[in-house]
Design a protein that fits this description.
By secondary structure, the protein is an alpha+beta fold. A hairpin with a 4-residue loop joins strand 4 and strand 5. The longest helix has 11 residues. 26% of the residues are buried.
Length: 118
Amino acid sequence: MEDRIAFDLWGDVIPEFKERALETIGDLRPELTRPAILRELILAPAPGRWIMIAQNLEWDTVRTLREQVITCFAHPQAYQAGYGPSDRDRLKECPVHRLFYGGVLGCSVCRDWFRWLR
């Protein structure tokens, strides 16, 4: 049996909302301490400073969070779990779902695979 397909949400912190962004990441990634979140932000390559907001999410959660975090993250983007902004040159993008994914079989959301693979 295949593992379920999960998704990660990444975003570019809007500087004037940095504190709210750090709190949001802390809430969604409780395994990270505030210093660890700051370290990830500092180490994120410029320009853009993309940071993982949340990981291993169900698609419905991604859709909801993407709308909620728009207030403190510019251009929140969904990636198939395990990928991120540094992988964009080798990923495909689904413009319908605004999702970056690996593989040759197409967008897992378009194909509804994320629902039945567990």
